[in-house]
From TrEMBL:
Domain Metallo-beta-lactamase: 11-188
SUPFAM superfamilies reported in the protein's UniProt record: Metallo-hydrolase/oxidoreductase (SSF56281)
Recorded GO MF terms: hydrolase activity; metal ion binding
Protein known as: MBL fold metallo-hydrolase
Keywords: Hydrolase, Metal-binding, Zinc
Alphabetical list of Pfam families matching this protein: Lactamase_B
Names of required cofactors: Zn(2+)
Superkingdom classification of source: Bacteria
CDD domains (UniProt xref): metallo-hydrolase-like_MBL-fold (cd06262)
InterPro entries linked to this entry: MBL_Glyoxalase_II (IPR051453), Metallo-B-lactamas (IPR001279), RibonucZ/Hydroxyglut_hydro (IPR036866)
Amino acid sequence: MIAKFCSSPASCNTYVLSAMGEALIIDFGADGASAISFCARHDLKIGAVLLTHAHFDHIIGLSSIYGTDIPVYIDAEDEPQLGDGRLNGSIDLLGEPVLIDEGKIRLCFAAETMKIGNFEIKTIKTPFHTKGSVCYLVEGENALFTGDTLFNLGIGRADLPHALPRKAEESLRKIKALDGGLSFYSGHGSGGKLSSQFLFNPYLKAL
């Protein structure tokens, strides 16, 4: 089962993927505490938080798990953004910094393949929106969490500070090479089947 929670700022999606009494939380926006409450209500053991990247809207709720033993996975390239309001975009867009105290979370770096509880996860590096942007393919769940790499009929911005626009095509080709039968879940807006994006998303269609 996949539950979605969405709230301001920037209408970032936070997802809970659950199976057999275990859960993963993907991204941790302003409504991340609701994801924690959802897991508690459904008696789900949280195996990890997986961050697709470290822009402020995807990390702003992390303070709600300060002091817990829940591991928080991120690509090493985006780790510096956690404690820097200019790098994570919060100063420019909110007028004040969103700063995550790394000493209060159990920070881990995402590996290419990970086994967390019953979940087997493949981390796909897709830098361009940020240097450390990744997608998470959860094997056996037919689920691809794309963060701001891929949207329904669009992609994430590559014109922001510290973006890598020259990496966009290479990163999107990794998505294009995946099974079209996968369901994708994006960082903003709706998701759907990858096959529909291969046909109608202009950025993938052009590859």
